[in-house]
Each structure stands twice: as C-alpha cells, then as structure tokens.
Q: What sequence folds into this?
C-alpha cells in the first residue's frame, strides 16, 4: 500500500496529474472520517477533505519517500480541521459558555432523574457533549478528538499540531476538565 | 497517603502514565481515588466519537473531480545533462593547468638534480656491494678487536672466534673478487690481508689459545690490519651514505 502510494506520487511529480486522482480516491474516505470527528460538521468535514488534498498536492514534492503517505495526509487534514475550527471560533458571535452553567444544568435535569428513559439521557449527553466540545479551543478540541476518538498518542498529537508534547498533553487535560464540568451534573442526577 | 491528581487519573485512563502498576495498586487501596477514577471512566466512556455520515464508493471520485481543475500539472524535471559547455570548458582548463604544473615539475626536477644517480645496472650493483661491504667490515673489525684482546689475556681462550672467522672468510672471498673488478687496489689489498688472517684463525689445527692468537697477531700484523679496516670502513660508510642520498634525491 505504502509503496503503491509512493509510486503514484512519483508519477504525479513526473507530470501524470491523474495519478493523484487515485491517491484521492484511495484516502478520501478515511480523511473525511477523521475530519468529521474533529469538526463534527458534515459541511466542514467536506471542506477539510478538499483543502487537505489541495494542500497535499502543492506539498507533494516535499514528501519524504521514507514517510507513510497516510500518516502524512492525516497530519495535513488535522491542520486543515484546526484552521476551520479557528475560523469558526473567530466568527462566532454568541458566547456559548453562557448556555450551560452548573446550576442551570441541575435545574434542567431535575425531571430527567425521575424517568428511566435512557435514550433521552443519551441524547442529552450527546447534546451536552457537543456543546462542551464547542466551548473547547480549537487546539483542545483537535487534541481531545485525536486522543479520545482516534486513539493517537500524545507524541503523535504533538507532531500533528506542531506543538510540544507537554502542550499536547495539557490540551487534552483541559479538554477533559471542561467536558467533565459540563457532563458531570448529568451523572449526578442520573 | 498521597491521592492521585486529576491529571494522573486522565493519564492513567489513556494508559500514558509512567507508573501504571503503582497507580493500579493505589487505586485498589484508596477508596476516594478509586471512586473518582470510576466516575472519570464513566464520564469519558460516555463520550463517544460522532458517527461520520456514510460516504459511498463514488465519494473519492467526487472529491477528485472537484479539485482536479484547480491543480496545475507538475513539470517533469529535465534530465540532468552530464556535460554543459561552461562546465566542460572549466574542466578542460583545470586539467590543462594540472598537466602543465606536472610537466613543469618534471622539467625542473631533471634540470636541478645531479646526474650521479645510478643510471645503469653496473652502478646499482656497486651501490649494493658498498652497502654489504660496510656491514662485512664492521663484523671483521669486531672480530679483530676480540682477537687482539684475547692475545693480551694469558689464560686459555675460549671464544667462538673460529666459527665467526669461517663465516667471514666465505663472505670475504666474494667481496674481494667483486672489489678486484672495480678499480680500488687499496680495498682489494686490505681484503686480501683480512682473508689470510681469517684463514689462519678459522683453520688453526689445535684450536685457539692465547699463544696461538699472539702468534697470528705478530706474524700477520692484525693491529695494523685493524687500523686499515677502520679507515676503509669509514670511507665505505661515507660512500654508502652518499649513494643513498643521491638515490633519494632522484626519486623525489
């Protein structure tokens, strides 16, 4: 697989543009999946996929033959996702943090503890999780998504985001703390 | 007992802590930490990755078609030509310069070195003879010195002089014949004198005692021969050194 990728890259660099199409077809599904897990938005994930393959093409001549193309393109995808999150963050007008404070959460969930409806609870958790994820900084969000959902090590996250391993670890900690602050009341009441 | 921090629990949850075993032991022993860790696990366990919408097999092709138009074609690198004109001229100039410097060196060497270097086999042979002769005279000198000292002793003489004399005698014959062919009568005469002494010492029928040695010394004037050998040895050594110096100069 890796060797095939490299052969296609060589063909692209030799002037065969359509060889890049095979690389796109081969990796677009997995890039979309990871992009969606980070952005949690279908349109954003689509945009990340396109931007990733465009950036990848322009940087193709710098690709190190010893590296794994899949890992390399993932890193580019993560950076694209991070850029999109940052863009949205700067455009966001409404302060989401005001939506859920702990006291309000307790009040909102008072009725839930009475009923046994697990489905509703799951939906509530999911809604809370999404809201909490929105409150994370882009770096925290990407770091948490990679750590928790993609099962990447701190080193890998640090490399992908271009930050120090300790910074990556701290980003994951802060993300967990924020999620905990948002979701803990649900568990108390349930 | 020191409780686990939240960071340590998170690290342990993601199996990134350095002291996994110690943390496990602590969690088993410490109820508050165990409870907090269980809550953290429950919380993080509830956070599931969002399911990405399914994309069909045509998705890759769609992505490709959407970006294809905006991608410029890579220009294949032109094959590196081995010789470009400027490089060729530069290389040729360097080679010419190098060859010129080499030739100039050779000419200078020929004009500034003395033509006394052995230029034929005969001269080379003489140089070898001089070298081995120097060694032979040195050994002969030592034997004569031992002989003279033995003559001064009044007791029995028990020296391996005869064996050494026999060896030197054989060599001396060869050198004498060689030197006879070269025009050096002094050296030839000295070697002839040495040969007679060596013959006497080597073939003494009753062995060597101090009386016999004294007789040889007296009859054959070994003291005079020793002096003669020393003078000749000095001369031969100088000739050998000169020959070596010339040879080195020739090879430089």
A:
């Amino acid at each position: 697989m890796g060797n095939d990728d490299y052969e296609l890259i060589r063909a692209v660099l030799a002037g065969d543009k359509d060889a890049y199409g095979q690389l796109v077809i081969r990796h677009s599904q997995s890039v979309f999946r990871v992009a969606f897990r980070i952005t949690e938005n279908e349109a954003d994930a689509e945009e990340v996929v396109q931007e990733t393959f465009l950036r990848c093409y322009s940087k193709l001549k710098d690709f190190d033959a010893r590296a794994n193309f899949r890992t390399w393109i993932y890193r580019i995808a993560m950076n694209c996702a991070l850029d999109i999150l940052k863009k949205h963050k700067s455009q966001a007008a409404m302060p989401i943090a005001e939506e859920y404070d702990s006291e309000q959460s307790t009040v909102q969930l008072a009725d839930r503890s009475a009923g046994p409806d697990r489905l509703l609870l799951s939906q509530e958790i999911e809604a809370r999780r999404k809201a909490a994820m929105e409150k994370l900084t882009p770096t925290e969000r990407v770091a948490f998504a990679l750590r928790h959902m993609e099962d990447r090590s701190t080193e890998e996250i640090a490399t992908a985001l271009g930050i120090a391993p300790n910074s990556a670890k701290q980003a994951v900690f802060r993300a967990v703390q924020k999620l905990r602050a948002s979701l803990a009341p649900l568990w108390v009441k349930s | 007992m020191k409780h686990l921090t939240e960071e340590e629990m998170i690290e342990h949850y993601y199996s990134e802590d350095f002291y996994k075993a110690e943390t496990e032991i602590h969690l088993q022993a410490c109820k508050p930490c165990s409870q907090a860790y269980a809550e953290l696990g429950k919380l993080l366990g509830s956070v599931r990755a969002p399911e990405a919408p399914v994309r069909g097999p045509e998705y890759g092709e769609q992505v490709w078609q959407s970006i294809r138009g905006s991608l410029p074609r890579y220009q294949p690198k032109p094959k590196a030509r081995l010789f470009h004109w400027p490089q060729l001229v530069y290389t040729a100039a360097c080679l010419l310069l190098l060859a010129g410097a080499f030739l100039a060196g050779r000419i200078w060497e020929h004009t500034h070195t003395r033509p006394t270097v052995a230029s034929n086999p005969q001269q080379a042979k003489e140089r070898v003879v001089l070298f081995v002769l120097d060694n032979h005279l040195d050994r002969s000198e030592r034997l004569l010195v031992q002989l003279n000292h033995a003559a001064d002793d009044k007791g029995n003489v028990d020296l391996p002089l005869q064996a050494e004399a026999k060896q030197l005698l054989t060599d001396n014959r060869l050198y004498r014949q060689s030197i006879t062919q070269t025009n050096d009568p002094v050296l030839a005469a000295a070697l002839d004198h040495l040969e007679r002494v060596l013959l006497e010492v080597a073939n003494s029928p009753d062995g060597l005692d101090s009386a016999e040695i004294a007789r040889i010394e007296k009859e054959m004037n070994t003291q005079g021969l020793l002096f003669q050998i020393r003078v000749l040895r000095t001369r031969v050594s100088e000739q050998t050194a000169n020959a070596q110096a010339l040879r080195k100069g020739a090879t430089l």
Confidence is low (pLDDT under 50) at residues 93-114 of chain A. Residues 23 and 101 of chain A are 46 Å apart (CA to CA). The domain at 1-93 of chain A is CATH 1.10.1740.10 (Rna Polymerase Sigma Factor; Chain: A). The two ends of chain A are 48 Å apart (CA to CA).
